[in-house]
Amino acid sequence: MTRQHFQIGVMFSTTGSYSVVARSMLNGASLAFRELAEAGGDVTFEPVVVNPSGDLQRYRALSLDLLKAGIRQVVGCYTSSSRKEVIPCFEKYDGLLWYPSHYEGFESSDNVVYTGASPNQHVLPLVDYLASRVGTRAFCVGSNYIWAWENNRIFREALTARGGSVVAERYLPVGDTEFDQVVAAILDQRPDFVFNNLIGTSNYAFFRAFRAACRARGIDQAMAIPVASCTLSEPELAEIGTEAVDGHLSSSVYFSSLDSPASTAFISAYAKAFPEGPVSSADAEASYIAVKLLAASLTQAGTDEARAVRAAVANQRLLAPQGEVRIDPQTYHAWLTPRIARSATNGQFEVLLEARSPVAPDPYLVQSSPRFAVTMRAPVLRVVKS
What we know:
This protein is an alpha/beta fold. The protein has two domains: 4-117 and 258-335, 3-Layer(aba) Sandwich (Rossmann fold); 120-257 and 338-383, 3-Layer(aba) Sandwich (Rossmann fold). The chain contains twelve helices and 16 strands. It has helices spanning 19-39, 56-68, 80-93, 119-133, 146-161, 180-189, 200-216, 221-224, 234-240, 261-273, 282-301, 306-313; strands at 4-11, 43-50, 73-76, 96-99, 112-114, 137-143, 165-172, 193-197, 227-229, 249-252, 317-320, 323-327, 334-335, 339-343, 349-355, 381-383. The strands form three sheets. It has an eight-stranded mixed beta sheet with strand order 7-6-8-9-10-14-15-16, sandwiched between helices. A five-stranded parallel beta sheet has the order 2-1-3-4-5, sandwiched between helices. The chain has a three-stranded antiparallel beta sheet with strand order 11-12-13, covered by helices on one side. Strand 1 (4-11), helix 1 and strand 2 (43-50) form a beta-alpha-beta unit. Helix 2 runs parallel beside helix 3 (80-93), helix 6 crosses helix 7 (200-216) and helix 11 packs across helix 12 (306-313). The chain is globular, with a radius of gyration of 20 Å. It starts with a strand and ends with a strand.
């Protein structure tokens, strides 16, 4: 059999305001490439790594550079703004972007495969948990771009359908770290919880400022006004710092504390390969999944032509660190396992609830619309720890 060799673009902003998570994502992808190389075979894969540094124009320019060089498959992007910036490039040159991050949904492109969580796999389970166990009055904060706008919209509609309300919303530029006014507004409103869609350095600064302000007033922040997110991950807990790391809720499909053979093996291999960190995360796992599914699809298709690879990925099944993962042939989003967890002082997450099996993606919330309670079909999660 003739040996085949494929170059695969890898595009993450390993410098810039959200570089901590992006470096974790690059590590996850790199680990998958290492394992593929060690496994050997007649098909080989070469990562071509580029760094847009969080600059939207560089995302577009680097995407065009890769595509014009003949690279048709690219794993990359963390933010929704970067994804939307490059999709027209992939559509013009008929490449495939493998997008390994949770996102706000309401998007469909024949040139994207989504291995991160859809809104029904992270937003709706979090609304269910908060409304039933924490309270119904929310204060929403977020970075001022499409991820936070859309996530807050979905969250607001879902919470309202359950009889709750959003008392206020505040948005800050990506990278902003001045939170005095926002924290003062939260303490003035005294919501049951904060729904947080900040990213990168803004995120870490907010957690520290909010905890410090509550402590100064004698408020047990984690108990009285918990912060809930769909983005908070293990590498970011280290960035927040020990004074404010515990008691935060996160909705995701993977946490490195999962006790399973596949997760344990992944964490061990990741730690050995990248002892300098940052530690693994759900986004790192999604990048790892993207590379593994892409490699299997290229092997089956025998070509990197976008249409053939897209057809092949629908046949793949992967025992990932989070459990079984497969790509839905209708939406080209992944079946994933929703989980709710709480951060601990050791910089890890304690899983509180999880779905019994992978949940079908519903990026347009057709089957799980948050607008009317009677149509809700959020994933049913079982209690892991009360």
